[in-house]
Amino acid sequence: MIAFDHHSSPAPEELPSLLEGLRMTKQRREVLSVILAERDHPTANDVFTRSKERMPTISLATVYNCLEALVSHKLVKQVNFERESSRYCPNLSDHCHFQDEKTGTIHDVVFKKGVKLEDFLELPQGTEISHLELSLKGRIGY
Amino acid sequence: MIAFDHHSSPAPEELPSLLEGLRMTKQRREVLSVILAERDHPTANDVFTRSKERMPTISLATVYNCLEALVSHKLVKQVNFERESSRYCPNLSDHCHFQDEKTGTIHDVVFKKGVKLEDFLELPQGTEISHLELSLKGRIGY
DNA sequence: ATCCCGAATTAGAATAATTCCAATTTCCGC
DNA sequence: GCGGAAATTGGAATTATTCTAATTCGGGAT
Questions:
Q1: Angle at A120 between CA A117 and CA A122, to 5 degrees
Q2: Which among A80, A125, A139 has the least Cβ separation from residue B141?
Q3: Which pLDDT tens digit goes with each residue over A18-62?
Q4: Quick check: A141 contacting B, CB < 8 Å?
Q5: Is the CB of B25 under 7 A from strand D?
Q6: Tens digits of residue pLDDT in A116-138
Q7: DSSP secondary-structure letter at A12?
Q8: Which candidate from B2, B121, B128 shows the least CB-CB separation from A124?
Q9: What is the enclosing helix (H) or strand (E) of A59?
Q10: Where residue A7 falls among pLDDT bands split at 50, 70, 90?
Q11: Which of B97, B103, B109, B120 is the best substitution to test chain A (most A C-beta atoms within 10 A)?
Q12: Which protein residue has its CA closest to C1' of C11?
């Protein structure tokens, strides 16, 4: 459709390394599968609602716990727009997010092939970036 | 010191246009002066504390109101790091933020001269970006 | 298979940042 | 100086998230 929305889930062969040290409980599997099922960047509460359909006993606290476990094991990315509630994203490729102001929809936006931070930022040498989050808002040419 | 921390406040001649339609009450002036006084990216609560020294009757709600007025009139920028509380920044130049994980200190980081979004992002044509926020975390080569 | 123990889950309470509300107060234009 | 719209105020309300303490789960050792 549009150039947004390239998508990449973990290649099957790299899953084991990501799972290292993460006990894959049924709640975590459920939460992960909810996030993998659609790529619409659900909030914790969205995930909670969807998870309950197949696992009615799951609690919101558990959803938060699972999300934090999945994020810290890099199976899922956490996405923030200003002070809105966090959203979760199954696309593990290096990318950032664009929120359509008209609809609220969030689209993945990929970096151009090969660009490095130093190409567009005046970063003092020796700076090690451990985390980067780029969030855009605007309108699409409909 | 380091290449971070370029700083630019509004040029005196463009202030009038920014102030257009903004009633500069004494509370707003106080809040603005607190933010201008240091470039340490204070939170709303920091601003509240500092403002109270010279204006003991100011309320937290007013600080929030003033901040929102100043931000929407582009006299101040709002800075977000994940879900931390918002911080406020007097640097109006196009820039982004780096948080030193060791100290928590936030540094301004400028974009390389002349870079455009399309240079490093795969943006579908026709996309109009109205807001961009890039937040970095990491360590400085001390 | 059973026992043990640390880890995960749960419900609900607690916290923190921010926003809302309704009652003044301020202050600009007449 | 007066009227009215906008701003300020204190406190209550809201919202997302985290914490707590009790319970349950599940994998490894026996």
A1: 85
A2: A125
A3: 567 899 999 999 999 999 999 999 999 999 999 999 999 999 999
A4: yes
A5: yes
A6: 999 999 998 899 999 999 999 99
A7: G
A8: B2
A9: none
A10: low
A11: B120
A12: A59
Q: Mean pLDDT across chain B, nearest whole number?
A: 90
What is the assigned CATH class of domain A12-138? Answer: mainly alpha
Q: Tell me what pLDDT residue A18 has.
A: 56
Measured in angstroms, what separates residue A60's CA from nucleotide D30's C1'?
37
SS3 string, B74-129, reads: CCCEEECCCCCCCEEECCCCCEEEEEECCCCCEEEEEECCCCCHHHHECCCCCCEE
Distance in Å, residue B61 CA to nucleotide C22 C1':
14
Confirm if B77 and B71 have CB atoms less than 8 A apart. Answer: yes
- Domain spans in chain B, listed from the N-terminal domain onward: 12-138
Q: Residue A13 and residue A91: Cα distance in Å, rounded?
A: 16
B58: CB within 7 A of chain D nucleic strand: yes
Q: What is the pLDDT of residue A141?
A: 82
**pLDDT tens-digit readout, B3-52:** 565 556 655 445 555 567 799 999 999 999 999 999 999 999 999 999 99
